[in-house]
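Thread: sanity check for a docking pose with zinc ion

Original post by kr_44:
Hi all, I'm comparing my docking run against an independent structure prediction. Below are the sequence and the ligand SMILES. Could someone generate the full complex and paste the structure tokens? I mainly care about where the ligand ends up relative to the chain.
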Amino acid sequence: MNEVLSRREDKKLVKALQAAAYNDHPNPTRIGCPTDINILKALAAKKLHVTDPVIQHVAECSPCFREVMELRCRLKRLRVFKILGGVAALTIFSVALASGYKNSP
Ligand SMILES: [Zn+2]
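Reply from moderator J.T.:
Ran it for you. Here is the predicted complex with zinc ion included:
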């Protein structure tokens, strides 16, 4: 009984767990939800300690789980924009440097 999940089975399991987290704990009155969005932002940025009680709450609260997932997507997009901005700046700098060498006597 020491079987390892294949990559496909693992993805399926993660999707099933995510679907459960998104829907299985509706918490319509938002009982126990953090009132400060910065706490969820800290969780999305992985800046909370693993023993922080907010993590357990988010695992049992679909609205908070959704918010954290949305915040994580935004952070990921922001990181991509920063990387692309850095690449663009480096390209512009390289082109300017190269054209400076071309025009020098
Ligand atoms: Zn909550």
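Residues 27, 30, 33, 57, 61, 63-64 surround zinc ion (CB under 6 Å). Hope that helps with the comparison, let us know if your pose agrees.
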